[in-house]
Amino acid sequence: MPExxxxxxxxxxxxxxxxxxxxxxxxxxxxxxxxxxGRNVPEGLSLDAFAGCLAAHRxxxxxxxTFGDLVRTIARTGxxxxxxxxxxxxxxxxxxxxxxxxxxxxxxxxxxxxxTGRDHDADRVRPLSLELAHRTKNVLAVVLSLAGxxxxxxxxxxxxxxxxxxxxxALSNAHDIIAATGWQGGRVGDIVDACIxxxxxxxxxxxxxxxxxxxxxxxxxxxxxxxxxxxQVASEFSDTATCTIAETPAGALDLHWSCTGRYxxxxxxxxMLCRHAPASLEGEGQVDFGDDGFSYRLSIGAGRxx
Length: 306
Prior knowledge:
Elements: E1 24-29, E2 35-39, H1 47-56, H2 67-77, E3 81-85, E4 96-102, E5 108-114, H3 118-153, H4 157-180, E6 185-187, H5 188-195, E7 203-207, H6 209-212, E8 215-217, H7 218-234, E9 238-247, E10 253-261, H8 270-280, E11 285-290, E12 293-300
Parallel strand pairs: 7-9
Antiparallel strand pairs: 1-2, 1-5, 3-4, 4-5, 6-8, 9-10, 10-12, 11-12
Helix pairs in contact: 3-4, 4-5, 4-7, 5-7, 7-8
């Protein structure tokens, strides 16, 4: 009586796309876990050595069931299975997500996706994602506050749109500076360059050389950007405007803005300039109005330096 024939070895399909260099390995195994064919086997291992190591790998430390036991079950029942092979012992140090199924000739098809190191990457990304979510919520809160405060101080939508867009642009400029330093903060010189538009205007800017290199924390960068935006809008139709930033003996920064000529006193956001922003900067703000212009002075506490 002739012995039952075993499935014939199947060579990898040369017409299939190459898997070289990818994370995917394909195998065809007998019911006993013997390799019939394979593609993209880990470098340095023979097909038989890889299949043998895989077959001996225990899927459960409690039950003691091996990958070879699972292959035999799939070959017998025709079901499919998905398993994770954790840190295969022996000659392979890798982790795989694995799919198994019975093929028409009775052999078992196996697809392994190498996920080695993926959880480590996820552990590093998760804190960054949480930090980004926190910062995003803070930015959205600022945007909502800007929208509400601007709406209260403008007579119609056209005025609101212009003022609000200026403030959002200032916020965007601040975040460009902060992002460039990995959310650490920004130099005073960079803040001035990004947030004061001197093109075609009469704004004159003077920053003391040592102050240019002073680094302020991220929230201070954001507050100063909004302040400079507000001052520029208020001085839009003035004859001249000057901005000077110097350092006090105690290490605080002194920002002085003045303009001469026409300005819009009613729309100037004095609550932000004199109360809200100075509080966030550990300093003080004061506006002095005159018949021919206004002057604003802001102190930035030494505690906001990095």
